[in-house]
Amino acid sequence: MKLSSFFYTTLRETPSDAQLPSHIFLMRGGYIKPLSTGIYSILPLGLRVIRKIQNIIREEMNAVGGLETDLPVVQTAELWSEAGRYQAIGDELLRFKDRNAHSMVLAMTHEEAITDMARYMLSSYKQLPFMLYQFKTKYRDEARARGGLIRAREFEMKDAYSFHATSEDLDEHYELEYKAYQKIFRRVGIEPIIVQSDTGIMGGKIAHEFMLATPNGEDYLIICEHCGYQANREIAEFKRQSAGASTQACLEKTATPNKKTIEDVCAFLNANTENSGKCVFYDVNGKLIVALVQGNLDISETKLRNHLKCKALIPAAEELIKASGMIPGYASPINAKNCKIVIDTGAAESTDLIVGANEEGYHFKHCVPKRDFADFETADIAEAAENCLCTKCEKPLTETRGIELGNIFKLGTKFSENMGCVFTDANGEVKPAVMGCYGIGVGRLMASVVETSHDDFGPIWPLSIAPFHVLIVQITKDEAVLQVSEQLEKELSEQGIEVLVDDRDERPGVKFKDGDLWGVPIRIAIGKKGLVDGKVEWKLRSQKEMEMVPIAEVAGRVKNKFLH
């Protein structure tokens, strides 16, 4: 491929809204172009990378028995209502009416459509198991689209769905998907961290996320480097260290003038923050929810939401808090009314906490929740953090940031029961299909490779997904240079090597800088000076050094790179 015949562009300056390396280099290298916030056009260079990622995913999905299909992105609200998600999902689901005033959605995921397809075909246990997958555009009306393809509103995803007669059969296939995902990510040059995760809007009981550890990640991961425990911070478990060892001391009202924060109160009373109770207030459908954790911890809204089985947690208004007999800044569940109280397991077992006295300028010392609070629910609602103790080995946990590459879920019968996707088993009994779900964001995976494999000049693509394998740079337009360039392009192309020839009438420095932005693994520069000795310049994108090699050795060297 001659660059003069290619549709491309490069940017010398960093776009003003780009901060992540992947966003910067995919824009500067001419892989993507923004159309609107979180919506990108994919240019030919970017599409070459995406197609190769798709092919790797397709090979691994086929290897575990997948059959490729294609589902509509525009779907009816009735279909989503069958599964109960039309009402349950918030504004990220784009709803609209067609010209006939029918309520429709732009699908952000395809569980409803695939279940509808499966129930159309499925009747007998003899048809099970099967797995269907697709590559499809999704749309999520993200409130905070950021980072280019890392968090876009419109994006392409590979989503796969498996259907089984039993949970045991799902378990077996889940392991196959787990291993297939490891292969996919390793083939594109990423060694993923695999963590337990929240099932969220997908439902089900078990889910895993495949993460890229990176300082630029938007997710927080909790990892035990001693026993190997790994989980997303929003659901990570950890060992509580309850406050106090005795229940003998009575409540003691203590003046704490102008001390409203946990840190200020504990400093004033010469106490550790873990010996205090932190209250956070939410409004759920008009009902006040009081969540309490030890002062050194934060509320995990994901855990609390799952415990309450609610769609959203809205910060409570001051009037609602006061109406329940509590004073913001000095609040506690003591004598509270007209509210639901949820206390974290560690705080619930504590026997000596500092909590608000529900009076301006006062706190209570020696609070024992089981003694001093009225009705409350105990649940794991605290968020794990660095140096919390692992529940398995009781060693300190570490925290790192990551980007989600893909996820897998054991959906169970959530969708099949709601939508009537059933089969008749060997005994003639009608049962719902047991389902699994497996997703990978294709564009996000491309961006994630850049996040983990780049230098100051651009991406460093692995051979498996590079837009081209070899970049031939013509240093001059000398006839001998052009002849060798044609010879090498023909020789390599005949071996199935994808070659891009920079035949522009530009300075070598411009060509080399653009070549770095394109991240082509092998660069061969041809100049008159080298040709005097029958040699060309050989440089790997992943290395700084270059060397002069005989023209006759170039094809063999390229072939050896592919073998390794």
Description:
The strands form eight sheets. Strands 3, 7, 8, 9, 10, 11, 12, 23 and 26 form a nine-stranded mixed sheet that branches. Strands 17-14-15-18-21 form a five-stranded mixed sheet. Strands 28-27-29-30-31 form a five-stranded mixed sheet, sandwiched between helices. The longest helix is centred in the N-terminal third of the chain and has 21 residues, at 167-187. It folds into three domains: 17-217 and 400-451, Bira Bifunctional Protein, Domain 2 (BirA Bifunctional Protein, domain 2); 252-380, YbaK protein (Alpha-Beta Complex); 470-563, Anticodon-binding domain (Rossmann fold, 3-Layer(aba) Sandwich). It has 564 residues and is α+β, with helices and mostly antiparallel strands. Helix content is 28%, strand content 29%. Strand 14 and strand 15 form a beta hairpin. It is built from 17 helices and 31 strands. Helix 2 (44-63) runs antiparallel to helix 6 (167-187) and helix 2 (44-63) packs across helix 13 (442-452). The mean pLDDT is 94.
